[in-house]
Amino acid sequence: MPRFWRLLLISLIIVLVLYGIYFALGRPVIPLPTIPYKVSPGQPLHSIIKADGADQIKLTLNTNGEIEITSADQSVVSLDYTPETFDNTLDLGERLLIAQKTVQSNGDAPESSTFMRKLINWAIAYYYHIVRFRLSVLLTALP
Amino acid sequence: MNKTPTFIKLLLAIVLVLGIVMTQQPPMATAEIAKQEGPTNTVHIDVTFDPGTKTYSLGGFSAEELRQVGAPQFPDEIWQVLGMLDTATLKIGGDMIDVYTGDQQLLSLAWDGPSREILYSLLGAYLELGNGRIDTERAESWLDKADIEISLRESKELSNPLEIALATLVQVQVKDNGELSVEGFPTGMSLTPETLDMINAANVENLKLCWNKGVIDLQVNGQVLPQVTLYQGGLGVIDKAFGLNLGDLTPIFGSSFGAGLVIGDADPVTGECMP
Asked: Which residue of B has its CA nearest to A74?
């Protein structure tokens, strides 16, 4: 067997074995480093972040279907989604956006991108079913 | 020469093992929702009153909070009557209405299907005088399995929080001209023409909203949207940030109810909110 094919085969086997272990472990969420973001006074989010006393709000996205906002370790709001409900939300949001533009422009309906919708849905489904990550953004209010 | 078949065998073995592992999906939670045999619409309201200061507390809301939301203040005649009461309780459950004062039963009325029919015809006759009408089917969906308890207590204490668990959806309709009605009764409120145009352009026909102790389930045109959970403690942040003065939300966060909103002549929203 040529060297190239052997390497490819070995790589494929390693990937399959690793994913098999990941799958057997119940596809746990892989945490990624928290992204810090400073919010300056005058920005719309500043007053909300300042309101909690700790001057910090954390936005966490678990791609296994949960988005959560916490403030000083206290959950404020969380949202549980599936690829289906996410698609329904996109559908509704898109219809409302088009409707708003149609009403404002007296009947000229803008077109939506089917390809973009499919791409988003595919990405959401992939990170929901196949590999799951936890992305966090820590918003800190500047004094 | 011998290595190639070994690789293929190994690959096949791994694919086979992984295939078996992947097909062994974790058992789905198939717990069936227990069928509710008891009352499905529960409303327990506790009212405490103090004839000395002529103030009252209702459903866990203080006199001051009630005043802020425009709750009515009673005239002296009412306070004189209340001053003679120690406790009074009205219970509607099963096929009976019971009224108690103190530990004594004051009266008991039949509350079965035929007796409610009489009430509906009396109410219907009264409403027809004002060009209104009573929807017997809707009334039955509310009252057939109702568990209502209203208790009045002379006390300076804060009343107990409201206990509301309504399975029946409150039917809200937006008419073609934007007027809002609840269970067929006009509210005097209406949507702006711009909002109505946008809703119609987006082809939104109906909406089902269920609130269950902070958990919000929403369906638009039958399509389920993501479930939102609001946390009572965390709402304090939003309250402070926007200066909403929401007050004590414990009664709301202890309740469950839902509404079905219909735009124009679309079909009514069916189903229930299961707490």
From this structure: B234
pLDDT tens, position by position, B102-149:
888 888 888 888 888 888 888 777 766 555 567 788 888 888 888 899
Cα-only R_g, chain A: 21
Tokens of B219: 């369906």
Nearest CA in chain B to A47: B241
Nearest beta carbon to residue A77 from set B26, B199, B228: B228
The count of other CB atoms within 10 Å of the CB of residue B119 is 14
Of B219, B162, B260, B205, nearest to A85 (Cα)? Answer: B219
Buried b (16+ CB within 10 A) or exposed e, B30-64: eeeeeeeeebbbbbbbbbbbbbeebbbbbbbbbbe
Non-local (6+) Cβ contacts of A23 within 8 A are: B18, B21, B22
Q: How many residues does chain A have?
A: 143
Which residues does chain B have within 8 Å of residue A19's beta carbon, measured at their own beta carbons?
18
> What values do phi and psi take at B7, rounded to 5?
-60, -45
pLDDT interval class at B152 (50, 70, 90): very high
ipTM of model: 0.85
